[in-house]
Amino acid sequence: MPVTISLSGRRAVVTGSTSGIGLGIARELARAGAAVALNSFTDSEDDHKLAADLAAEFGVEACYIRADMSKAEDCRALIATAVDRLGGCDILVNNAGIQHVAPIEEFPVEKWNAIIAINLSSAFHTIAAALPGMRASGWGRIVNIASAHGLTASPFKSAYVSAKHGLVGLTKTVALETAEAAITCNAVCPGYVLTPLVEAQIPDQMKTHNMSREDVIKNVMLDRQPSKEFATVEEMGGAVIWLCSDYGAQVTGTTISVDGGWTAL
Ligand code: NAD
Question: Which CATH number applies to 11-192+232-258?
Fold first, then answer.
């Protein structure tokens, strides 16, 4: 029997949602009937069109809100604007994230600061801003998009691994503070997902390793992903809407890995 999840009547904010995983999650939330606020820091015509297209395709309310998630005041203003535009914020998905790869001795301080700000501190600010409304309405769902790197480490990713482990810690803390308020807080931990960002790295890797596209994907990128397949943005969206549904009411303070077996190794 097909299971249908309806989030009709819920209002969702997804940070960093004009591409990749965030957009995939926003699409699944809209497909399930939620009103959605998209976000990035660019404020382009394309950004606003994405929201209009989402509204037309799924028959839901959708808007685009510019906010730079590296800035505390922008993070808090994003929630206030979403509440103004959509009438509330019942679902908050903290997805915005960046990466930088370098040995720790050479890791640029400004990259460390940006990764901690965007991948970790932004969630602290949005959660703090969204919780009073969730508590007042007596319902809420917070989903933080961490990573397999929130549970395990890789060399040369000191800031990313630290931020994602921190995000998992924040998730558990918020879950305990909200446990009696019908609000849940969880982290989804993706393995490798073929987003435009990852796709763009394939040609360089082919050159560097003198390998075919297939070999780069299987033996370089998916080296640590036992399924040898990328996870998809739709699968991330599926995990999120399940957590946001009534099925997820008692799931809180935990991590859901969608990583083809990476963290089982
Ligand atoms: P992406 O680059 O396609 O998307 C990142 C999004 O964040 C974009 O919409 C971008 O506009 C936004 N963003 C970046 N800086 C921002 C800022 N300062 N303010 C507002 N928005 C900003 O990347 P993605 O692969 O879809 O990654 C999304 C999330 O999933 C990230 O948190 C990432 O760490 C996590 N993740 C990705 C993978 C993967 O394999 N792609 C694996 C594990 C975790």
Answer: 3.40.50.720
- pTM higher than 0.85: yes
Residue 213 CA, chain-centre distance (Å), reads: 27
pLDDT, mean of residues 159-184:
98
**What is d(CA 252, CA 143) in angstroms, rounded to the nearest whole number?**
10
Q: Across all residues in the chain, what is the average pLDDT? A: 97
Residue intervals of the chain classified under CATH 3.40.50.720 are 11-192+232-258
pLDDT tens for each residue of 67-106: 999 999 999 999 999 999 999 999 999 999 999 999 999 9
Contact between 142 and 125 under an 8 Å Cβ cutoff? The reply is no
Cα-to-centroid distance, 206 and ligand 1 (Å): 23
Q: What is the DSSP string of 159-199?
A: HHHHHHHHHHHHHHHHHHHHTTTTEEEEEEEE--B--HHHH
What six digits make up the tokens of 70? 């590296």
97 alpha carbon – ligand 1 mean position (Å): 4
CA distance 256 to 148: 10
Task: Ligand 1 pocket test: pick from 113, 195, 256 the residue with the most ligand atoms within 8 Å of its Cβ.
Answer: 195
Given the CA of residue 198, which atom of ligand 1 is nearest to it? 41
- In the reported structure, the alpha carbon of residue 95 is separated from the centroid of ligand 1 by a whole-number distance in angstroms of 6
User: Band of the pLDDT at 197, cuts 50, 70, 90?
Assistant: confident
